[in-house]
Amino acid sequence: MIKQNTCMSRILMMLIMMVMGGGCVWAQTHTEEYDYDGDGVKETYNVVYLKLGEGNDSKDGSSEANAVRSWAQAYKLLPNYTGTTDSDRDAAWDSNIIVVRNAQGSGNLFIDETIAKGNGTNGIPVTITGVWPWTAENTASSKISSWGRVYLNSSNYSSTLTSGTTRIGADTKFKYVRFGATNGFLSMFLHDCMFDVGCVMNDVSASLTAENGALRVDGSTRKAPDFQVFLFASTYSFSTSSATGGLPTQTKPVTLTIKSGKFGRILTNRLTGVDADAVKKRYVMGRPSSPFLCVVNVDIDPNTSTGAWNTRNDVYDIAYLCAGMTQGMVYSDVQFNIKRGTIGTLVAAMQGNSHTATATVGISNSSFFGRTEVNINPAKNEDVTIYRYFATCFGRYTDNKDTKGTSNAAFYGKSTLNMHGGKIESGIFATAGGITGLKSPDGAYHTTDQFVPYLDSGNDYKNYPFMGIRYQPYDETGTKSMPTFTTTLHGTPETIDLSKTVTEINIHGGIVNGGVFGGGYGFSPEMPAERAIAGAGSFWGEARVNIYGGTITGGVYGGGMGASNYFNASTTDAQRTGFSTVASVYGDTHVNIYGGNISGGIYGGGKGLDSQSEGSQSVWNGATQKTYTCKATEFADVAKVYGTTNVVIDPRRPDDFDTPNLDWTYKGNIYGGGAMGAVEGNTNVTILGGIILGNVYGAGKGEDGHPDKAKVTGTTTVNICDE
What we know:
It contains nine helices and 49 strands. By secondary structure, it is mainly β. The longest helix has 15 residues, at 6-20. The chain is elongated, with a radius of gyration of 28 Å. The protein starts with a strand and ends with a strand.
């Protein structure tokens, strides 16, 4: 919007008309003036009315009666855009208004880069709205049925980088608009997008299923609206014919901001292929030297998201939020900033593959390489609710046509959670059914992912896309190196060592109903046993858990949480052997307690399983409840830590946080080891202050008759310092 003197603007318009003369008709932008911010000065808006498929492109778009019929003509009636900064963009999309007046009509949201340029050379930032002007009476709930509606097509990708079906071609804001779709997909195509106030999804089907997006949440009756947003989506084929890659190099992160609406699934990217692709084709997003950079901001006002605008309280604000894609792999640096909203499942990195990943396919098991950061900063705990949280990846499989191969998700790099408030209802885990990290610090263990990317200058691979990257099983000899990963998400170049994966969980405030685990969960409800990998939920790297405050109703663990579902569902002894090591950590763990209200125990290791007698057991596996015949087992290797565990209790707190709480009191027990989770290494427990009303153990918590369940192979050390 442009503030200006009304009288001067009219004089300027008269001069322009005089210069034009009577015999010349030029297309010009229709402007309107309103004072929405109440400062006594009217703002000028460039306004075009659009009735998709119903208007007339020979009209000037100055009113609903004179509406144009196409997106292309609507953009041509807006001023050309020459801005270069974010502030330029903000000014442009605040002043350029396309008013969609299709209440019951048809026409999809298709805007590519060519359309979005209008008559110029740069994409024009706009606000698309179904209400104009923005006055109180037009935004009342009783008027929603008259708002203009934007339709999303069910085609969820495009065949090239410059065409498609449901997408935007320039930075776009939606405000006071209804969305309609039976199953709708929107690709941002690397353009910034904001769902501002008044985005209504009441007309979108709530049919998105658990199998389609890993959306099921145990115990929840809420549904998932079939409204899906991808910051980038394409079927771009990375074959040897496109050795330089085809994706543009980003100069800044692509940003998605959500202030209202109801969404089924939000993925930062989606590159789709099929399991019959040739080995030399790679479905890869980003490059090691130029990773995909993106920021997702969630700030949905609970009073409006379920009040006057969105009246459907049976769905989440966002059912599934994930910094990954459905197939292939991604080099990426992603930041989530969450202030307000209800989220069903948040996966901070990679969603599992929906196709098998085998040697004949030659693609990675839905792998994420890079960094992901989640910042939860609500004004109060009630402002944010997350039902399931996974710090890295989530195992998923939906295609039951092929009985061969496995499908899962993997993460390599650094994952950080900074939680200052809000609620997480089902605990915190590094992964569920996926695999995290590459190699332990001593080099003794390696990931089971069959397709880790390496730089290879050999003649057979030098023409591969993305600097000669090939895929092969992890090379223990070290003759192949991981590519160097450099990111500029925060403005200056940073290098992340992909060979040393780290997860860091920082709890400053809020409520976690359930345990906090530095390691992974050994089972994914969306990954049936026949598709799961051996050692599901395992972690190769360093796990850090830091508790500064907040309330945790369960325990705090440096390791992972075991599950017997895959073990019990297996049909052969070989499969059972593989699934007996789920939720293991191959590396060091660090649990640092600076404060907080913790109801359960504090462990340097993981949470294992009770020993099991032979018999039958009913478990949830995939989409159904099944009963299996179970053999007797001790589960001695479940949730085991192969490395050193470190537990530090220090209520003095670091200098850069709040005033030290020297009177911090903890009523539970502290263990250097695990809860029926063994440690193949040393354990260290250090108490630097506080009031401990429970017991302190250097080893773990075992089970009667099964001494190996909490065994520590190395040295146990307990230091209690009185300072």
